[in-house]
Each structure stands twice: as structure tokens, then as C-alpha cells.
Amino acid sequence: MRGFLLLRAKKMTNAVTALPITSKASAALVTNLIAIPAAAKVYGIYGYNSKAGAQFIQLHDSATLPADTAVPVFNMTVPATSNFSIDFGFHGMDFVNGVVVCNSSTAPTKTIGSADCQFFVRLTPNY
Question: How would you class 55 by CB atoms within 10 Å of its CB: exposed for 0-12, middle for 13-18, buried for 19 or more?
Fold first, then answer.
């Protein structure tokens, strides 16, 4: 008689807890938006630049608005009077201290501009 190997199927569960994706938006034209003053994962940023010239949109890992000359963790150039967006994909971008988005007249460091941007941030707070 030949031997048989009996495999017992074990029910596997890959339970994934869904974290709520929330959003924070500026109600008017502003220079900055403190999206969340705590650790979070950012999935996307959308907005509008009403300025007649190009400027930089910066992300800072901070719970409060950093001082001018602070170095951003992410920086993008946006054209004059235009909409802008950045999608960080399925995995998002992690922030340890908080999420601040602002405009700047310089790329390498923060030099706050005038109140001429609207911001919308999609994120998940880290629990």
C-alpha cells in the first residue's frame, strides 16, 4: 500500500484593519495649513495657486508652522494661477511630528509667501 500525505487545511486570515482616510482643507486663500499636529501618513495634496507667478509648495514634518529657513521634507514647483496635485500612492508618505503644507518663494528652505493658496490634504492619522 502506498503512503499518502494528508495535509490539513488551516483557515488563514489576513485581517486588515482599515484606517480612516480623512482630509483637511483651507477655507480660503492662505499661506499655510497645519493638516494635523501629530504623526500621520499623507496620501495626496491638492490645491490652487492664485499668485500671478510660480511658487513652491512645501511639506514639513512638524506640529506647528516652522520658522522661515526651515528645510522641507518635500518640495514642488507650481505654475502661476493654476491647480496643483501630488499623489503619494497607496503607501503614502509618513510624517512623525505632524503635517504642515505651505507656500514659499524659495525651494531649499521655507520663505513664506502671501496668502494666495488653497490646500486640501488627504491623510490617515497614525494611532
Answer: buried
